[in-house]
Amino acid sequence: MGKLDGKVACITGGTRSIGRAMADAFIAEGGKVVVNGRDEVKGQQCLDEMGAGDNSAFYAGDASKQEAVEGLIDFTIERYGQLDICCLNSGGVQMTAPVAQMTDEEWNLEVDWNLNHVFWGMRRALQHMIPRESGRIIVTSSVEGKLGKPGIPGYAATKHAVNGLVKAAAHEVGTMGITVNAILPGLIETDIVRATGPDSAVAMGMSGYDELIETFSSESAIKRPNKVEEVAAVAVLMASDAAKNMTACMFPVDGGTMPY
């Protein structure tokens, strides 16, 4: 038997990187998964590669938009009749600029993608989970939710806020059989990081992408970037019955980067 037999999950940003690793891990443990992404072609390719047949589905939508996040949850319940695990995983460094130079538009984009998406998804998921008195909400936060580097103030601020939202929600539903937790990954060389890393490095006062990887690796105990599979393994634990007494937690998957 798998750890997630009979469980149904949805994952924002589930067609690549951390979200894809979560989807693969959930299916391997017997779960059913709906993955979300913006591109329908990539979504179908993801399903084909996963090879899970009727145990997987794709929902197209931009997770920085309320209708897409709520639509994903509604679609999952319509498709499989229940929602046991809601992974709010989409997000990332959207804009790099010092506070004094960041525009309102840039700030609002960071807030919608990294914070509002979590609020919208969490609210909708809890509305379904509370009557059942059962459920797992897993949020992909970041080590920057406890740290904060120059040049990425929107990302750092929203991840700090996400961690607070996780703790507040967990205490609201803790007696209802529902857990709410966050995973805080360290640097992972995903395709998103490869695309945004050069600009982020410059914004942080580094020479480029190579220095970014070297700096983040040197700050950890393991002296290397983290892996998506390492994050997914923690997500499986959080989604399983083994973690029924673990809630309002921030789980670092950062190789020892955070000082506390």
Rg, alpha carbons = 17 Å
H/E topology pattern: EHEHEHEHEHEHHHE
Mass-distribution shape: globular
| CATH architect. name | 3-Layer(aba) Sandwich
Helix and strand content put the structural class at alpha/beta
Overall CATH class? Alpha Beta
Structural domain tally = 1
CATH topology: Rossmann fold
Report on the biggest sheet.
Answer: 7 strands, parallel
Strand order in the sheet with the most strands:
3-2-1-4-5-6-7
N-to-C span: 36 Å
- Beta-strand fraction estimate: 5-15%
Low-confidence regions:
none
CATH-level-4 superfamily name? NAD(P)-binding Rossmann-like Domain
Mean pLDDT: 93
Can you tell me about this structure?
- With 260 residues, the protein is of the alpha/beta class.
- The protein has one domain: 3-Layer(aba) Sandwich (Rossmann fold), CATH 3.40.50.
- It is 47% helix and 14% strand.
- A seven-stranded parallel beta sheet has the order 3-2-1-4-5-6-7, with helices on both faces.
- Helix 1 (17-28) packs across helix 8 (228-239), helix 3 runs parallel beside helix 4 and helix 4 packs parallel to helix 5 (153-173).
- The mean pLDDT is 93.
Fold topology:
Elements: E1 8-11, H1 17-28, E2 32-37, H2 40-50, E3 56-60, H3 66-80, E4 85-88, H4 104-132, E5 135-140, H5 153-173, E6 178-185, H6 191-203, H7 209-218, H8 228-239, E7 250-253
Parallel strand pairs: 1-2, 1-4, 2-3, 4-5, 5-6, 6-7
Helix pairs in contact: 1-8, 3-4, 4-5, 6-7
